[in-house]
């Protein structure tokens, strides 16, 4: 067997090894969640310790009465007193990663439902947290929309996932009781209305401090603008650090029999963050304790909780340093938090802090408008350097052709056109040397593209459950009728028959003869979009090889047909 054929066989075996490696990840028993831990850290500047009632909790305290939440202002005796006032906190000083108190409660306070054209939200009066987010354009199963939509945030114990913000050191913490301005009734985006505002207010008559928290949500957007307005009508200066945190439980482990048909089995789930120094970083839940506490000062970054196709992320104000930290807490919950600079407001003055909370799908264009690096939350793994430009080309072709299946075919055609001069010389040389030393150059370029496209299909939410034609109604799921894998098997067999193999060792020849069958069986479990790519590449390669052989190799037999194959 000559060197070129050895390289071709090596490429096939490499793909098989990678697939086998992924298979072991499916069959492996999921690791047990780590035991809850508290991460000690230095106290806030200017205070010996942060009072326990001012610290954020991984869960929310017991609900208060609905009547208190429906009033425009909360009476002084119904509002928790502001935390003990710290001594003068230097502007710009940042607290360390303080421990989250262990708690098993998942109770919430009165909530207000907010409905836009793409989101159904519930905002909690306790801390003004977002405790429920339903994505109206993303059914769990495209073929069975009556089964409900994807729910990204939830107060339920089994799927607990909330986004909180509040002050620590002084002022209303993430568990403080706010009141909804205008009452707690449902609020919906009306026809012709471009945005909604959801204001909440917290007042402390004893200190003269008022904090107004306003959510602004625009039509068609998954970005929630969150503004904290602080007004100090007291006699002493206010200084507190604004905290943002995402708290959730890990998802249940997927079935071991899912194999390649369920990307939830191996897609990353956990915390991620971005910093200018270290760029995109991530940590799985089971590594929160193993890798030690994160206590990282970051400017112009973000911190998020990732799962397959969807993300919730806090984006702090631009240009302001933050401390990012991770915590494993009681109740099998995990927290990713960001604490900002001290907000200092003199008596009689006011100030505000603007944040952004992204709650939705990993849509690269809209996320980039929120933060230039937020699309990095779409994690293609080690193939990102190929997968990202491939998605750009696919997205461009989709804009032209209007269908992701045709876009996949289009990217194969473009690749063939780009490589045509090289491949034509190879096929021409092979055809002219058939009688002396026939050979075929290994086509290694499609293999890394194949692997990159695999991750694009699995991770890009734009392709999630996207249809092609006829029976292919989901390019990210296997072909339900196995037609594409069967066609691919036939094309690989025909290509093998057209390729001469004199002088090859009989054992090697037998191994190559079984390759179409092996790939045909494997591709039965692959996403149909991936099989469509490989099939299109094979058909065009077979046609080019047959044409070059006919043109430059003298009289040759026509390419084998399925009838002859039988």
Keywords:
566 residues; alpha+beta; nine-stranded antiparallel beta sheet; five-stranded mixed beta sheet; 10 helices; 19 strands; 25% strand; elongated; disordered N terminus
Give a concise summary:
The protein has 566 residues and is an alpha+beta fold.
General description of the model:
By secondary structure, the chain is an alpha+beta fold. Helix content is 28%, strand content 25%. It contains ten helices and 19 strands. The strands form three sheets. It has a nine-stranded antiparallel sheet with strand order 6-8-9-10-19-16-15-12-13. It has a five-stranded mixed sheet with strand order 4-3-2-1-7, with no helix packed on it. Strand 9 and strand 10 form a beta hairpin. Helix 6 packs antiparallel against helix 9. The longest helix is centred in the C-terminal third of the chain and has 29 residues. The protein is elongated and about 95 Å long.
Count of discrete alpha- or pi-helical segments spanning 4 or more residues: 10
| Major β-sheet strand ordering | 6-8-9-10-19-16-15-12-13
Reading the helices and strands in chain order gives HHEEEEEEEEEEEEEEEEEEEHHHHHHHH
* % residues in beta strands: 15-25%
Radius of gyration: 29 Å
Q: Classify the secondary structure makeup into a structural class.
A: alpha+beta
Largest sheet: 9 strands, antiparallel
How many E strands?
A: 19
**What is the helix content?**
25-40%
């Amino acid at each position: 067997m000559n060197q070129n054929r050895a390289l071709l066989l090596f490429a096939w075996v490499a793909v098989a090894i990678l697939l086998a490696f992924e298979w072991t990840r499916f069959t492996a028993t999921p690791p047990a969640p780590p035991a809850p831990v508290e991460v000690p850290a230095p106290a806030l500047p200017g205070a010996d310790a942060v009072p326990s009632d001012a610290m954020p909790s991984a869960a929310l305290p017991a609900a208060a009465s609905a009547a208190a939440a429906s009033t425009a202002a909360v009476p002084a005796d119904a509002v928790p007193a502001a935390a003990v006032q710290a001594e003068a906190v230097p502007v710009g000083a940042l607290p360390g990663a303080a421990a989250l108190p262990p708690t098993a409660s998942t109770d919430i306070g009165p909530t207000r439902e907010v409905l836009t054209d793409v989101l159904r939200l519930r905002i909690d009066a306790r801390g003004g947290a977002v405790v429920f987010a339903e994505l109206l354009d993303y059914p769990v199963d495209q073929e069975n929309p009556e089964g409900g939509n994807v729910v990204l945030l939830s107060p339920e114990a089994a799927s607990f996932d909330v986004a909180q913000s509040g002050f620590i050191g002084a002022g209303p913490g993430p568990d403080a009781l706010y009141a909804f301005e205008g009452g707690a009734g449902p609020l919906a985006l009306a026809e012709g209305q471009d945005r909604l505002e959801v204001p909440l207010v917290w007042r402390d008559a004893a200190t003269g401090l008022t904090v107004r928290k306003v959510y602004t949500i625009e039509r068609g957007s998954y970005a929630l603008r969150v503004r904290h307005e602080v007004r100090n009508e007291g006699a002493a200066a206010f200084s507190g650090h604004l905290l943002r945190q995402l708290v959730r439980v890990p998802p249940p482990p997927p079935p071991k029999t899912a194999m390649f048909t369920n990307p939830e089995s191996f897609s990353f789930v956990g915390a991620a963050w971005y910093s200018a120094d270290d760029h995109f970083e991530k940590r799985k839940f089971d590594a929160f304790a193993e890798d030690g506490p994160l206590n990282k000062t970051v400017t112009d970054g973000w911190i998020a909780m990732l799962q397959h196709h969807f993300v919730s992320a806090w984006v702090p104000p631009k240009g302001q340093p933050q401390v990012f930290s991770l915590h494993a807490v009681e109740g099998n919950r995990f927290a990713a938090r960001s604490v900002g600079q001290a907000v200092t407001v003199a008596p009689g003055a006011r100030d505000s802090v603007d944040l952004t909370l992204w709650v939705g799908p990993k849509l690269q264009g809209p996320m980039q408008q929120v933060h230039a690096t937020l699309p990095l939350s779409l994690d293609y793994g080690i193939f990102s350097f190929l997968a990202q430009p491939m998605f750009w080309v696919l997205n461009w072709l989709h804009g032209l052709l209007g269908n992701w299946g045709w876009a996949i075919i289009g990217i194969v055609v473009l690749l063939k056109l780009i490589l045509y001069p090289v491949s034509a010389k190879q096929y021409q040389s092979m055809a002219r040397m058939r009688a002396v030393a026939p050979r075929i150059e290994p086509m290694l370029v499609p293999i890394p593209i194949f692997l990159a496209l695999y991750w694009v299909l699995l991770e890009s939410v734009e392709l999630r459950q996207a249809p092609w034609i006829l029976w292919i109604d989901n390019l990210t799921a296997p072909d339900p009728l196995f037609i594409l894998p069967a066609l691919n098997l036939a094309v690989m067999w025909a290509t093998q028959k057209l390729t001469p193999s004199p002088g090859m060792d009989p054992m090697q020849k037998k191994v190559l003869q079984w390759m179409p069958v092996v790939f045909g069986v494997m591709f039965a479990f692959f996403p149909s979009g991936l099989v469509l790519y490989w099939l299109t590449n094979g058909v065009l390669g077979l046609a080019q090889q047959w044409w070059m052989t006919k043109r430059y190799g003298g009289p040759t037999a026509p390419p084998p047909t399925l009838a002859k194959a039988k």
